[in-house]
TrEMBL record:
GO terms for cellular component: membrane. Residues 1-37 are annotated as: Disordered. The lineage of its organism: Eukaryota, Sar, Stramenopiles, Oomycota, Peronosporomycetes. Pfam families: PAP2. This is Phosphatidic acid phosphatase type 2/haloperoxidase domain-containing protein. PANTHER family: LIPID PHOSPHATE PHOSPHATASE, RE23632P. It comes from Phytophthora boehmeriae. One of its GO terms (molecular function) is phosphatidate phosphatase activity. The chain crosses the membrane at residues 52-71, 109-127, 147-165, 211-229, 250-271, 277-297. Residues 147-295 form the Phosphatidic acid phosphatase type 2/haloperoxidase domain.
Length: 362
């Protein structure tokens, strides 16, 4: 192959291919005038770049979660307490566990959605577009896109599990009698349904798990993990000075402020007599697990200082650049280059995917 062969610039849509017997490599300025052809390939690249398919699947799953709202709630028999007056007379009383007074919600649903989604998005935009103008903050590629996707996936997972469990269990809220408009003047025989408000009765059967708790923890824990990743608190030099160690500890507590807000939202559900403690704990666990899964799907581990806060695609790009450098520089010392290449792949938080892509290049 001649060193003056026809110029071939790498296409942006094609993944890195191993260099076989190169005599020279095109420089970036050589490709400056090469225009990407319009058509299906360019549209496909844009769809992949903005992860349209993943956003679309997330939207479909959220719609599926909302469909559970149309499914009839499990119609459990209304709890009753039998009180025997004598050998022949018996009366029936209401269950005190669901006979609390219904209170006004401290955190209504519109407020939960507005602040639960608005605060993380505002923080992400501040870190990416506002603060870099005033401070030296590292710019992270794909960050806005992947953060929004993580937030959407966490909310969708939590909503899907919560809606399914609510309608499948049909557990009574602590203020069920008050919510369903119970006829307190009638003498109850323990069988007749004395509810006068059908909508209130349906809502009163959706206690388990807490939707407020799951939503709050899904959004706020994603924000907490994101802040922990951006802060990279587990650096090796965090205790080299008194001021540095104190600053890192302060940042650690500040990163957990969103979790404090989520805990407060969950606690209000018990104060307002809308949920039992078991509902709140389960809802919080559903939201927390959803947040961890969504964040781990899109970002590097917060325990790895090198890749903390980086989206998976940015990590793969970084590994690809390092592996390309090794491929081009290895020359006659191939075993050493192979060792370095595998060392790079082992440091990736994405583990198996990075190792598979690197082994294909070698």
């Amino acid at each position: 192959m001649s060193s003056k062969s026809t110029l071939q610039c790498p296409s942006p849509t094609v993944e890195f291919q191993p260099v076989t017997t190169p005599s020279w490599t095109p420089r970036p300025e050589d490709c400056a005038d090469v225009q990407e052809p319009a058509g299906p390939k360019r549209r496909q690249r844009l769809l992949c770049e903005f992860r349209v398919a993943e956003f679309g699947c997330t939207l479909l799953m959220y719609i599926a979660a909302k469909v559970f709202s149309l499914v009839p709630v499990n119609d459990r028999p209304i709890p009753r307490i039998q009180i025997r007056l004598n050998s022949t007379a018996t009366i029936w009383a209401r269950d005190p566990a669901i006979d609390e007074v219904m209170k006004t919600e401290q955190v209504p649903m519109w407020s939960l959605i507005t602040f639960g989604l608005g605060i993380p998005i505002v923080v992400n935009f501040l870190l990416n577009f506002v603060l870099p103008k005033f401070r030296d903050i590292r710019a992270i590629p794909y960050d806005v896109r992947d953060f929004l996707l993580s937030l959407a996936q966490a909310v969708t997972l939590a909503t899907l599990l919560t809606k399914f469990a609510k309608h499948a269990t049909g557990r009574f809220r602590p203020s069920f009698y008050d919510m369903c408009g119970w006829d307190y003047d009638a003498v109850w025989d323990g069988v007749t349904n004395l509810c006068t408000n059908p909508d209130g009765e349906k809502e009163g059967r959706k206690s388990f798990p807490s939707g407020h708790a799951s939503f709050a923890w899904a959004t706020m824990l994603v924000l907490t993990l994101y802040l922990l990743g951006r802060s990279r608190l587990n650096c090796s030099r965090r205790s080299e000075s008194f001021a540095r160690g104190g600053t890192k500890t302060l940042k650690l507590f500040l990163c957990f402020v969103p979790c404090l807000a989520a805990s407060w939202v969950a606690i209000t559900r018990s104060i307002d007599n809308w949920h039992h403690y078991g509902d709140i704990v389960t809802g919080s666990m559903v939201g927390a697990v959803s947040a961890c899964l969504a964040y781990s799907y899109n970002y590097g581990s917060i325990f790895c200082w090198q890749y903390a806060g980086l989206p998976c695609e940015a990590i793969h790009d970084k590994l690809k650049e390092e592996s390309q450098d090794i491929e081009l520089q290895r020359g006659g010392d191939a075993p050493e280059a192979h060792e370095k290449l595998h060392a790079i792949s082992r440091t990736s938080h994405c583990g198996q995917n990075a190792r598979m892509s690197n082994s294909q290049r070698v």
